[in-house]
Write a structure and sequence with these properties.
The protein has about 260 residues and is of the alpha/beta class. It is built from ten helices and six strands, in the order E-H-E-H-H-E-H-E-H-E-H-E-H-H-H-H. The chain has helices at about 25-40, 55-60, 65-70, 80, 105-115, 135-140, 160-170, 190-205, 215-230, 230-265, and strands at about 15-20, 45, 75, 85-90, 125, 145.
Length: about 260
């Protein structure tokens, strides 16, 4: 079916990529690439231990989307997959106390569209394995979450979920004016993970975090700071504060130990 030329819009998400975490079938990767290309998706990242069968992927991708398969980025972990992206939407059918707030694809893409309008911002749409979906650990790398509302039976295959999200983003970005790439330089996932590492280290130093509550509190901190939308400069500032705090804390401890040794002598 061809698109209606009367309904063409002005802006399209050329800086958006799909992130497929642990897909079970190569055909689903190919189908996701084919669908993504229809809606302006520019890249494909797959998290897997080894490269899926290329011929099976290409069969479903068809000739037009074959470049997404051949140029596919293959990584071992979700953290690696997330690193280049500034904002990531995680898709999930499950809800829980520690999960991100539930939103429909339409509502989420309305929030994302102003960010996607800036070509400097890389946007990722993350999908989990067909049988289990994304884990809480996967969703830690996401600033937004999306749940497709369905009737009683909530099982959609990977390609269907990709189609719905790509379509909603495509439509949401159609009415947004493109922004200057120099406007705001947001922190990407690589910057944020480095910052979160220093935050966790500093909070552990003052015993705010321990082995029993670290996951809970760091997930809450991630969700809070994710809503703030830190710039690259702000993330670097937070890291600098944490590094300075750790230096003073450890230097003070070392000095006190030396004084204790002198007094014993």
């Amino acid at each position: 079916m061809q698109a209606d030329p009367e309904k063409k819009t002005t802006s399209r998400p050329g800086n958006v990529g799909l992130i497929l975490v642990g897909p079970r079938y190569p055909e689903n990767i190919g189908a996701a690439a084919r669908i993504g290309l229809n809606f302006g998706i520019s890249g494909l990242t797959v998290v897997a231990d080894r490269r899926p069968d290329q011929e099976r992927m290409l069969k479903m991708a068809t000739h037009k989307a074959s470049h997404l398969i051949r140029e596919m980025r293959l990584v071992q972990t979700t953290r690696e997959a997330a690193e280049p992206f500034h904002f990531i939407v995680g898709t999930t059918a499950r809800q829980g106390r520690l999960r991100l707030r539930k939103n429909t694809p339409r509502l989420v893409m309305e929030k994302i569209s102003p960010l996607a309008a800036d070509p400097a911002n890389r946007i990722g749409l993350m999908f989990g394995p067909e049988n289990t979906g994304l884990t809480n650990e996967d969703l830690d790398y996401c600033q937004f979450s999306s749940t497709i509302p369905t009737a009683d039976f909530s099982s959609l295959n990977l390609a269907q979920a990709v189609a719905i999200h790509c379509y909603e983003l495509y439509m949401a970005t159609g009415t947004v004016q493109s922004k200057s790439s120099a406007a705001v330089e947001y922190a990407n996932s690589f910057d944020l993970e480095g910052m979160y590492g220093h935050v966790a280290e500093a909070l552990s130093e003052v015993t705010f975090l321990d082995d029993t509550n670290q996951t809970y509190w760091m997930r809450s901190i991630r969700q809070f700071l994710g809503r703030v939308r830190l710039t690259k400069k702000e993330a670097s500032l937070v890291r600098g504060i944490c590094r300075k705090f750790l230096w003073h804390s450890r230097n003070k401890t070392a000095t006190e130990q030396e004084k204790g040794n002198w007094s014993q002598d």
